[in-house]
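In response to reviewer comment 3 from the previous cycle, which asked for concrete evidence that the modeling workflow produces usable outputs, we include below a single protein chain processed end to end. The sequence was submitted unchanged, and the resulting structure tokens are shown without manual editing.
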Amino acid sequence: MNSRSSSSENTRRAARGAFDASDVEPAESFLPAPTVQCHAANLVLLPDGSLGCSWFGGTQEGLSDIAVWFSVLSADGTWATPVKVSDDATRSEQNPVPFLAGPHELRIYFTAQNAGDQDTAEVRLASSGDGGRSWEPGQTAVPAKAGTGVYIRQPPLVLEDGRLLLPAFYCPRPENGRWVGDADYSGVLVSSDNGSTWTAHQVPESTGCVHMNVLRLHDGSFLALFRRRQADFIHRSHSTDGVTWSAPVPTDLPNNNSSVQAVVLHDGRVVVAYNHSSAADAAERRSSLYDEIDGSSTDTPTPPGPAFWGAPRAPLTLAVSSDGGLTWPVSRNVEEGDGYCLTNNSREGHNRELSYPSLVQTADGLLHLAYTHFRRAIKYVQLHPSWLDG
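The workflow returned the following structure tokens.
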């Protein structure tokens, strides 16, 4: 079911937190788009109760004009003019992850890579002391290792003992050819000094599992959900301390080698936003994520490997689990489409993906969702949890 409402009054009412049980239809809007391409949104709750959103934008993912942007949702339901957070003219700056480090410190961790080479990526950090209106220049937080890039996508969280945990994944350079993602694997970065230094802890048997999304369940244990390079199923892993993890195993939810994100609701249920699609739904296949960028392909094409690119990135779906991520019996589509993503070309509008969701719940119970819309804009949706029950 594709349930949408574009009423401006509905959006304003949602922004005021005035939803009740009868206001179950989603209210939607688009963030201002200062660039041709917009992708990889992440939401954050700010100290004053407002909502912030970061994403990356420019001409095309992998090009050096890709930078990080940030905007705040105002009380009248409109998004403020975006502020440019990063500006390195030599690197593609991607996958911003906002984190509220204190009442007066907002951070954004993000990646920076050479062209389409994720094996060169490092994690950088930009900070703001005024709620995101201005930003200190980004500095290296986690350097790349020799021949292996370090990448992020999902929010950090603070463990009970005060340590900071940042989910990460690693992009090794293949022996021949360029990075295509075949050997990527996951881990967590743990800091005991508020992010000054980090210790890496690898997730066992996680090759192909990336975008590790760590959730603290109501019983105190931890659940992680993963995107899969093989474009088969969302995978899950469990931990008692957030640092040491079980080997990932498949859920019954499909995955198309695109990002997922989940949230633990106030009532303990887990809701995941994802594309209900996989390689089984794909009629064609891309050679790599960056196959349109000059220099990102060799004269002799690399034979297809485990990483599957090009599976449809639609519909945009929410699924619900009441047993800590073991089963997902309830799901609804927020938006439907063909999800065509065999190109990242936003200038000519060929891409039609609905992807890279970010999901949070506010104190009033409302769910807030942001995601890539055709790689031309970031779409924002508010909905009441009762909508999940149909």
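Residues 8-15 form the longest helix (8 residues). We consider this sufficient to address the reviewer's concern, and the full set will be provided in the supplementary archive.
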